[in-house]
Each structure stands twice: as C-alpha cells, then as structure tokens.
Amino acid sequence: MCIILFFFLLVTALAKDLHIETIGPFYIGSLSDLVITTTLINRGSTPLVLLRTPGSILFPNVTNNFDIVHEYGGSPRFLGAQMKYSLDILAANNGSFLTLPPNTSLNITHDLSNLYDFSSTGKGIYHVHPATTLYEVSSAGGIPKPFPAGSFSSHSINLIEDVFNFKEARLENKLERRDTVPGDIITPRFKSCSTEYQDATNDAIPIAKKYVADAVSYLAALDDSTPRFTTWFGDFTTHKYNFIQRNYEMLNATDAYQSWTYDCGCEEGNAGIIAYVYGPEYGTIHLCPGFMAVGPVGTDSRAGSLIHESTHWAKTVNTLDYVYGQEGCKSLAEDDWRKAVRNADTYEYFAENVPELL
C-alpha cells in the first residue's frame, strides 16, 4: 500500500501543469487602451518546452490569440495576420522554442489595439478568452504535440464608446484597382520577390487552380455522404453541402490566384511561416521563407497553402484558423462541424486530397 501511495505521489508531482492568467483594464474608452497581459505559470515539477506558434499566446500582437465575445453574442472582426505555418520547420528552428522551468511564470503583453474592429458589435461588455492550446516539444524529438493548459482565467472589458478600427480602411484603401479588358493576359503581381519566389509561385498557381477545380467537379457530382466529405466536413447534410460547394465555386473564379499580388517581404513571419493574409486586404498573399521549404504538391504544399490563404478573405470563404494539421482537422469535423466549415486548413486538405479519399 505504501509503495502504491508513493508511486501515486511521485506521478502527481511530476505531472505537467500549465495555468494561464489573463488580466487587463476593465473600462476601455479608446482602442489604444486595449492591452491584455497573459501570464503562463508552470505549476508542475518538470520544464515545459513550448513552441511559438501563430495563433497561440506565445505569438503576440500579430495573430488571433483570443476569443473575444460580446455579452449578447457576436465577436469583433479580426484584422490581423492569418497564417499558414509548418510545425516541422518551426520545430527545427531553435529560435521558435520557449522553456518554462518548474514553478516559474512568464508575462506576455498583447497589444490588441490594431487587431480587432468593434464597429459591428458596438460598445458593451466583452469576455476575452485566451487561446489555451500550445505545442510542446518532447526531449526525445519528433513532431510537437498539442498541449492544452490545465486551467486558465478569462478577462472582461467594458467598451464604453463606439469605436472603429481604421486599420481596415487603411488596408482596403491602399489596394490598387486592376482594370482588365477581354482578351488581356492576366498575370500575378510580385512585390519584393526574388526570381526563385516568382518561379515557385507561378508554378503553384495552376496547381492550386486545378485542385480547386477538381474539388468543384467532385462536389457537383456528389449527392450523399462519402469518406472524403465526412473526413473533412463531418456528416453530410444538404445545407452544409450547399455552403461548401458555394465556397469552392468562389475560389474557382476565372481570375483567382493569377490576378492577385504576392508580397515576399514577410514582415510578420519567421522560418516556419509559409504565408499569411490580412482579412481586409483582399487579393494580396504574403509569402514567407516556409513557402520555399515545402513541396510544390501534396499535403501542406505551396499550391495548397495558396488555397488555405485565399479562403480567409470575406469575399471568398471568410475562414479562421481554428486548428492546423490533418489530425486536428479530422477531429474538428467530428467534434464541431460548424467550425470545420470555417477552418482554412480543412478547405486546403479537401482540395489537396492526399492521401486520396473517394
């Protein structure tokens, strides 16, 4: 009995336990006051080696790291960067790790003043919930595994004035109108892109268009459940089918992909970031070093990454990045199909169809 009790206490002591605290101002009269601090507390007795992934609280001031919900429902529109990244590449980059020793804490400041537009939801009380799943890197190596916090606290803010985030207006106003006439040969525009990036993008565009066209053809012939449909979007329903079909048809527009601008400046990325877009900045995809590190075709390919990013705009599908990776997307289809039909990686994997599903 004593041996069993000792073993139980030993296992408990070694258990990994991460807590996330969320604090900030309560009254917000201006978006410049919208600064939130998260505190990661390692309550366990072993170090936590965590990966700085987009969408997590370890990647502040750029991506959507919080679920912000008005007391009467509804959320402000996210205006920041929506990224496609590679876990493998991030895991191979030492600068992407953060080590949190036992019984220590880390404060991270999040300036949200330019990341959300509250004009549609208005003033009132909002509940700010942090993203609670991180990726842990094992000492034995291998692919990082999702590591949910054992506990967390949320924070409430009272937006006492109606505010509008002018970042959206700036992004939309800076886009150049591109007029064409019938018979014009439409080619992509490049900004700060080397010849290597331009060649890789020009090769990826027709593949992306074929992936999307094949998805449209597949859906047009579909009238019931199939392994391919249920794997990525859950059980077949007519309402869901019509919604997904419409979205792929939007991506299948005549000048999609080849008429857009590709910016290789990658101001927001690092070695593991493949590409990103800003929601209000329709028609511009930012390419990062990870774009050249992934394959031209197949799962998480360059062509697939263009599809992923193209779904984020409100003019196409208006997706978010609820989960990344095939396993995460499969679980999402089973657990929450409403999020699956709004998840960018899901649309990419359905279109890439690797491994092939009928």
From TrEMBL:
Residues 1-15 form the signal peptide. GO terms for molecular function: metal ion binding; metalloendopeptidase activity. SUPFAM superfamilies: Metalloproteases ('zincins'), catalytic domain. It comes from the Eukaryota. One of its GO terms (biological process) is proteolysis. Keywords: Hydrolase, Metal-binding, Metalloprotease, Protease, Signal, Zinc. Gene3D superfamilies: 2.60.40.2970, Collagenase (Catalytic Domain). Its cofactor is Zn(2+). Residues 217-352 form the Lysine-specific metallo-endopeptidase domain. Belongs to the peptidase M35 family. This is Lysine-specific metallo-endopeptidase domain-containing protein. It comes from Sphaerobolus stellatus (strain SS14). The lineage of its organism: Eukaryota, Fungi, Dikarya, Basidiomycota, Agaricomycotina.
